[in-house]
Write a structure and sequence with these properties.
- This protein is α+β, with helices and mostly antiparallel strands.
- It has a domain at 157-367.
- 34% of the residues lie in helices and 21% in strands.
- It has helices at 9-13, 15-18, 103-116, 137-144, 157-160, 165-191, 194-208, 213-223, 237-245, 280-283, 292-295, 334-338, 346-355, 363-367; strands spanning 4-6, 24-30, 33-38, 49-52, 57-60, 84-90, 93-99, 121-127, 230-234, 247-249, 256-258, 266-272, 277-279, 298-302, 316-321.
- The strands form 5 sheets. It has a 5-stranded mixed sheet. The protein has a 3-stranded antiparallel sheet with strand order 1-4-5, with no helix packed on it.
- The chain is globular, with a radius of gyration of 22 Å.
Length: 371
Amino acid sequence: MSTITWMSELMLKYPGFFNIDPGHQTREVNIGKIELRVFKSSDRKSDMLSLDQNYGISFDQNEEFPFGNTDQMEYYYQPECHEIIDELRVPFRKIPVFKFENDGAFKVLFNNIIKAFPKSEVCLRGQRKVYRTERNEDELKLLYGCSQTKEPSFTPSFARKKFSENFMTALWHSQTANMFEFILYDFAKNKMNNEKFAQCYQSIERIRRSPHFTPLALAYAQHYGLPSVGLDLTREINVAKWFATFELNNVVNNGNVITPDLTESTIFIFACRPDSVFSHRSLKPRHVENTRPDRQDAWFNYSGWGSALNQLALQLVCAVRLDSTALTSIPSSYHKHLFPGSDEDIVLRYYQLKKNSPLNVGEVIRAFENV
């Protein structure tokens, strides 16, 4: 499948609207080694620019290896004490995949990356599988110089499930607004004393009137199963390890835990721009506790939209491949902590009621399938 198209005149005129970079990229090929590429129209070898729709990056159609020749690149991050067992490629970076040694070594790696990126928010994402972009071999060779390149995909769920971005944005907002009403008058009014209720009410009203309402609506949508433009991140190592090594069926009834094949169980480490990521704790309403985002130390990245559906990959630093030794520090009942039932999680209770509403029609029904 090809993900390269031509840049239209409309895209060149309104690049921000389409989430594309029309030719100015800062290439950080290694930590501390910055290459600034300024692509001027006078430098073109042809009259047309190609556009990669995974990252919104444009390039001359005659440019050789526009994302960097893998064979001529150093690893983006390469501490001497960690064994490299595989590699991934994203534009301008060759990403090392380290072998998991033990919890202590992982914490050292994580803390060292935090120190190396003082202006970034360093976050983790655990996955049971390394998903790849849908490219054919010719396209991989054109971009990276190798047809067998492993290019990870972090495409958000709305795109994978073919939802309209505008429709989903409207749905997040409407459901979060309704959920706040549910929290206040079906829960807080009966469970909280007057002082706490007033604080909860003021907190929710403040969120409703602030720019934080949109990212918080995204966060709730993502965590409870609505398709979104975001991906779950965390700073809690055990949370990332759990999602990289376990699968949970039937979440509503406390779940059935499955330990899958660990062949590709991986924790990805990202150094995110501060304006692209936020923590649930920094935005949440007061006195609303024990939700999934609370228990999972949730961070959210507005990870892909427009013509840059895989742009989270541009912030990838390295990855760690797990094995059975990574399971030893995870309690057997940890899933019950990560996924509290509706008796504890008021947000889950709302979404369960909404999913079964007879008023749902059309795309709303499909959007709620995974709640």
